[in-house]
């Protein structure tokens, strides 16, 4: 399984150290930054699977950092867990519906944070596989020019293969006859559009 990358935004080094240790021993790769303004650039440079975000940062608040992330194409969907020290911050997290996935109050057990991280990443993986049920039934290997349906490799002619590959590339999309002719029969100019 691929190593999952976590970004930790936390200005208190001692807290960061315990989290880096707890997450590291769960097999996560952790990158740590101290300031809020470092979060978005770090995430854009190499996207993280999840961000653990302290609310009380020296240069900005975790809320602002989350708003920045959510307003950015790369950061829109990344799961975020807030670390918060005060009850009024929890009210804001819940009340403003900023789009965080979870929060943990300080003082916390690092193992609990690691458990929440794992739970959220599992939930994400599940919802991703539910979002693309077609992939479980159809498997397309473009390098081998092969399409597998319910585990059974299909014997296809060249144009059958190209047509099916086109349809699988955009499940649910409707193609016009012209679009299909243009893409599948592109190298056969004398084909009539009745071929489809
Ligand atoms: Ca702090």
Enumerate the distinct ligands. calcium ion
Unreliable parts: none
- Share of helical residues: 40-55%
Question: What would you call the structural class?
Answer: alpha/beta
Q: What is the tally of beta strands?
A: 8
Mass-distribution shape: elongated
The order of strands across the largest sheet is: 2-1-3-4-5
Q: What is the overall pLDDT average? A: 86
Spell out the helices and strands N to C: EHEHEHEHEHHEEEHH
N- and C-termini, Cα separation? 42 Å
Gyration radius (Cα, Å) is 23 Å
Number of helical regions: 8
Note the main sheet. 5 strands, parallel
Your description of this structure?
- The protein is built from 8 helices and 8 strands.
- The protein is of the alpha/beta class.
- The strands form 2 sheets. It has a 5-stranded parallel sheet with strand order 2-1-3-4-5, sandwiched between helices. A 3-stranded antiparallel sheet has the order 6-7-8.
- Strand 3, helix 3 and strand 4 form a beta-alpha-beta unit.
- Helix 1 crosses helix 5.
- It is elongated and about 70 Å long.
- The mean pLDDT is 86.
- The site of calcium ion (CA) has 5 residues, from loops.
- The site of calcium ion has 5 residues, from loops.
